[in-house]
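HUMAN: Forgive my ignorance: could you write out one protein's sequence and backbone structure tokens?

ASSISTANT:
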Amino acid sequence: MEKKPIFITKYDKVRLKRLIDTDLINEIKRAKVVDSKEIPDDVITMNSRFKLKDLDSGEESVYTLVFPEDADIYQNKISIYAPMGIALIGYQVGDVIEWPVPGGILRIKVLEILYQPEASGDFHL
């Protein structure tokens, strides 16, 4: 399966490069880098809050994509270092993300962006 280009802001790219991880590096390499003011408002960026749907179970959940120091499983704050975080950065509403997990392939659809810092003018969160 060929992966489509994703979007990240210039500011996120600089910060993410500091958190070097092989999978994360591969995501950054395929990203279309744009200015914070130009990122579409339906894209998952750092500190975005979004709703996902597990296409196999039908379960819907709300998460926030955060930097490692802010991760909190009890508040559904996913670290960018977590496999799920790496898989989600840059995807847009309507996209379906598939990635291998123990026991098969997890298929998740991005349903809604509830908060995106850039869309709210919060450019340096």
